[in-house]
From TrEMBL:
Domain Threonine/serine exporter-like N-terminal residue range list: 21-252
Top-level taxonomy: Bacteria, Bacillati, Actinomycetota, Actinomycetes, Nakamurellales
Protein name: Threonine/serine exporter-like N-terminal domain-containing protein
An example Gene Ontology molecular-function term: transmembrane transporter activity
Keyword Amino-acid biosynthesis: no
Amino acid sequence: MPRISPEPLPTPPDLLELLRALGVALLNSADSAATATQTLQDVAAVYQVDLQAMVMPTGILLRSSRSEVDLVTVPNRDLRLDQIGQVNDLVALLKTGTISPAAGLERLDRILTAEPRFPVWVSVVGQMVLAVGFGLLLNPDLVGLPFYAGLGLFVALLRLLAGRWGTLSVALPVIAAFLVTVLAVEVVAPFVRDDPIRLVVPGLITFLPGATLTIATIELAGAQIVSGASRLVWGMSQLLLLAFGVFAGLNLIGYPEHSGAVQAGAWAPWVGVALVGVGYMLYSSAPPGALIFLLIALYGSYAAQTAGALLLTPSLSGLLGGLVIVPLSHLLSKFPHSPPGAVLLLPAFWLLLPGALGFRGVSSLAMGETSGVQDLIITGISIFAVAFGVLVGMSITKDAGAIRRTWRLRVLRRRSERQRRRVRFSGRGPGSGRSG
């Protein structure tokens, strides 16, 4: 780490403790390793500390002098949307240097220990709405919508039980996939003549690692090899656990015969996007006033994805979706009372559904269907398309911000030059007239 000066100043203990806790919070906010690293170094620079950071999904290594090296482990905990928004607001405040590290640490502790905005039963209703919304995105038979809500309610109750029983939480993905598969085949399939996998996916949507796989691909494309590879392996392991539960359920009760369901129509996915926004707000406790901005971001990314399917191919449609969502989220975050861009990005990653495609492919392979290979290939292409679009969108957003700052500096310089000229003219003109 060559940037450390020969005689560095000692790092204040409260600042080091703040950087530790802030790095963990950023990773639990679904930030990439590169973004978290840059944020920690920017905050440290404001407080006159030359920091070197190595950020990985499971640990952070900080170095601020030749003798001061600090390692902190990162627990696997997902923050709610309201917490993600408050963490980003705190980062913006820390970058101004108007708050002490001790005060920043105290504020961060209040954010991480705050109660959810909504009670538990509202979160359960949110998961039901999410299941119905993602079911509509699959353009299903309308007869299946009440069953989607019922399966979403069942998974939400399992999550509540797992929160009180640690042993169940370890095996929750497998148990949930197994039980949902049994219910979908035994209870739902006789009424809805559709592919059982299409019936299972909406109920398990909160387990699908679509955002994790997308961020992993972004990190790999950005040369963050360790972070990207570890996230990718973890995301694939989640898909394999879910597929194992589905495979066990189908082996127990058999794979039913199904005919093509009568699809609802082209309007169904657009209604599903609205339900996804409302469901995500309730399930993940979005900040107050965030719903309208959340819906605009979701509809913008979905419209771009639909246009990409028409202009390119369905597997490459996520390219335009990822390209649009970053600058759109950045633009929306500039409006008054809007949540930070990170709050709008995470639901959009879910909406692109690379996790659902991968789950279908792995499940098909587990059942011995050759179509699973094709589904997995399409999943890989879709994930890389989304990641490439997000990378390009981030670059465009950064370039646009740099151009805007440069233009603003030029305007300010011109104004200051005009003011100097006016001062010189007003100081010389009247005085020269009187002396003459």
